[in-house]
Amino acid sequence: MTVTRFAPSPTGYLHIGGLRTALFSWLTAQHNGGKFLLRIEDTDLSRNSDEALDAIIRAFDWVGLHYDGEVVYQSQRFELYTKYINQLLDEGKAYKCYMSKEELTALREEQMANKQRARYDGRYRDFDGTPPEGVAPVIRIKAPLEGDIIFSDGVKGEICIASSEVDDFVIARADGVPTYNFVVAIDDALMGLTQVIRGDDHLYNTPKQIVVYKALGFALPEFYHVAMINNEEGKKLSKRDGATDVMEYQKLGFLPEALLNFLVRLGWSHGDQEIFSLAEMIELFDPKNINKSASNYNMDKLLWLNAHYIKNMPHDKLAKLLVSYGVEVEGHDRLEILLDATRERGKTMVELAEQVNIILNAPSEYNPKNAKKAFKGDASDIIQGFAVMLKEWETPLHLPSEYHAVLEKFVETKEIGFGKIGQPLRVALLGSMTGSGLDEIMAIVGVDETISRIAKAIEFISNKES
RNA sequence: GACCCUUUCAUCUAGUGGCCAAGGAUAUUGCGUUUUCAACGCAAAAACAGAGGUUCAAAUCCUCUAAGGGUCGCCA
């Protein structure tokens, strides 16, 4: 059975790049009817925080990725790791190293000065003398001295790294706490991972982990190293580039389906298809099609996708969502008309909420430039005349089409074009010259409010003139 | 510095030796539609990093160069 995982360290919020690798892993599991596990890499006890873990799980909930089974905490598995450390020590596959931190630093500096890759020189590998006093040893694993470490990466192809590049790295700190590359290999093996999908910043950890797999006799999973997401300029994504925290996207008014669709197309594709529902992603995703190269974050495309999902969301769902962005609307028909009138005008939920509020709330001021243009000449008389016609209209007015009939009758009677009434009426109703259709706006706010807004505009015009 | 990886329009990408004088999408520009804006429709502009090979044929295979990225922790 396919088993994948996401293994964050709880040091902050869920990063947008992390979400993409999580998504790739999750999709791989779903596609194959397997399991997707969550493991918390908290072996560095000084850097953990519970809030960070909460934030990660909340982000998962928001986008709708679920993990199977219980969350695995590495900090709760130290006994297990210690058992394996002792086993390797007993078998002579690991050893104690008494080198001090100062000595290590000196060694690294010397190697760098000699234009070499910095690495531990193995000086305690076969040590059987008397250990120096006052140094708590670390445990190092014996990496191969000769040959190459070769593995096949599902994304990058065959990776070959000379053993001389992989040193006898530390598997347990001086205080006995095991280190990352050691526990990752153990957990991935014990948790039954079949595919390990992670950022390609881990590419160089893979040969180290393979050393552990081999020493412990574990079978290797398939590795997939996914290239990074850069900012719009092609540089490393940082907080200065805007939202990197997944939950930030909710605040900005993005829909989870848009965010996931955006992320899945960063580094993966299926022919010319751009829009993927979650179900389609699951059906079509194959990690073998992941791109080798890094991709740049592209806000415009995210916005386009978000607009797409807003436009295509069922009204009741959209209305419910709008509540969390501060907009609540009474009346079923009214809501329908309102959403029809606004949904194509907002690329985010925040913008959509703004559009809705512009219609719902009478304008507190008129855009000076627009007012000047729209309220000139006989504009006041025209909208006044329209208000009268509305007031005296004999059949009840509810639907946009009914308001449209009034408007049509009005331009016909007055023998004017739509443009003549359209501009002043729009500014009277909204305060600006752009926005939703007049018929819809009037249907939403109703006859009384329409007349009242017109009256206010007329007052404004006469004040200006006097 | 060493090692490893990457390179198709501004951006995301299709492309696995002939179907490619390179296709789609976003963004951009123009036109249409509309009482306005948006949405939508149509159109335009826009790329194989460079140089050498291999081949009847190269975006695709090989070599080198260049540019970008990653890694070199008792962090993960």
Number of strands: 12
Number of helical regions:
18
Approximate helicity band: 40-55%
Weakly predicted, low-confidence segments: none
> Structural class per helix/strand content?
mainly alpha
Distance between the termini: 82 Å
The spatial strand order of the largest sheet comes to 1-2-3
Identify the overall geometry: elongated
Task: Please tell me how large the radius of gyration is.
Answer: 32 Å
Largest sheet geometry: 3 strands, parallel
How much of the sequence lies in strands comes to 5-15%
**SSE arrangement, N to C:** EHEHEHEHEEEEHEHEEHHHEHHHHHHHHH
Throw out a few tags for this protein.
466 residues; mainly alpha; three-stranded parallel β-sheet; three-stranded antiparallel β-sheet; 18 helices; elongated
Account of the protein in words:
The chain has 466 residues and is mostly helical. Helices cover 48% and strands 11% of the residues. It is built from 18 helices and 12 strands. It has helices at residues 16-31, 50-63, 78-90, 101-113, 180-190, 205-216, 246-251, 256-264, 278-284, 299-311, 315-323, 332-342, 349-360, 368-374, 379-392, 400-414, 418-430, 438-465, and strands at 3-6, 35-40, 72-73, 94-97, 138-141, 148-153, 157-162, 170-172, 195-199, 222-226, 229-230, 295-296. The strands form 5 sheets. A 3-stranded parallel beta sheet has the order 1-2-3, covered by helices on one side. It has a 3-stranded antiparallel beta sheet with strand order 4-5-8. A two-stranded antiparallel ribbon has the order 6-7. Helix 17 (418-430) crosses helix 18 (438-465). The radius of gyration is 32 Å and the shape is elongated. The N and C termini lie far apart (82 Å). The model has no long low-confidence stretch (mean pLDDT 94).
